[in-house]
Amino acid sequence: MAAAGLLGGGALxxxxxxxxxxxxxxxxxxxxxxxxxxxxxxxxxxxxxxxLNLRVEQAFAYNAVGVSLLPVGFFLLLRHLWHRAWGTTPGxxxxxxxxxxxxxxxxxxxxxxxxxxxxxxxxxxxxxxxP
Length: 131
Prior knowledge:
Blueprint: H1 2-17, H2 30-35, H3 44-52, H4 56-62, H5 64-86, H6 99-113
Helix pairs in contact: 1-3, 3-4, 4-5
């Protein structure tokens, strides 16, 4: 558990202080490299860097759906850690049956729309905001 904390802390330090746009040690999107099509996750690393540096608008420009779903992921992580720490079994979340299906529909729709090279859909592709 301590090793995971150290690894996570080191990753946060790197991501906060070294921009993915300026350094080559970050992994590249294999899907984009092979097909030139933005996957639903394209821009997530850059978005996290922008969020960690309090540039929320830029984070949304990189990956709007990923940034929008971060609170859900954070809640689920905290919920998991809480139940693990207390040795309890989490109950079923309300809407759990439909939640994954809705998220899948959102991701697939986002994947399709962000690859349409027509305004306003092209704004869904990862891009830099003009300062």
